[in-house]
Amino acid sequence: MDLELRHLKTVRAIADAGSLTRAATALGLAQPALSAQLKRIERVLGGELFTRGRDGVRPTPLGELVVERARVVLPALCELQEEAVRFARQGTEGYRLGGTHGPLLGGVVDRIARGEPGAGVATYTAWSETEIARQVAEGRLDFALVGVCGESAPPEPGRLAWLEVARDPVLVMLAEDHPLAPRAEIGLAELAAEAWTDVPGDGCFGDCFAAACVRAGFTPACVYETDTASCVHLVQVGRAVGLCRATFPATPGLVTRPLAGAPLVWRHLLGWHPAARAAARAAAVLDHARAAHAEALARSAAAVQEAAQRSSAFSMTTGSTGTSACPPARPVLTAAMESTTSWPSVTAPKTA
Question: Do residues 79 and 255 lie in contact, with contact meaning Cβ atoms separated by under 8 Å?
Answer without folding.
Answer: no
